[in-house]
Predict the structure of General transcription factor II-I repeat domain-containing protein 2A-like.
Amino acid sequence: MSIAKRGKPLSDAEFVKDSMNLFTSVVYPERKSIVENTSLSSQTVAKRVDDLATNIQKTLINKLGACQFYSLAIDESTDVCDTAQLAIFIRGVTKCFEVVEELLDLCPMKGTTTGQDISTK
């Protein structure tokens, strides 16, 4: 909710620190001073977000590598700026019948969104 209200990226240090303060005040009020005294530069936050993205990518590759079968699904929607967005999902099943479903990408579509446009995207 805070991301939508502020319209700030996750790499914005002030936004991240405010979010951490809010979380700490609710979950660990006795440790709130630790977060308040922590210095966060935009560069530090951007590096951490990049590290998290890499970790998520590796986890997804491992999960999908364990799948015996998989399928791709796409869905097109329009965002608040009237830009068509193509959501690409993957769903797989492991040999233990665990279902893995993840959003792979969200691609803005310019112009028309016919089947031909989607297949060339």
About this structure: Residues 67-121 form one domain. Residues 42-65 form the longest helix (24 residues). The radius of gyration is 19 Å. DSSP finds five helices and three strands in the chain.
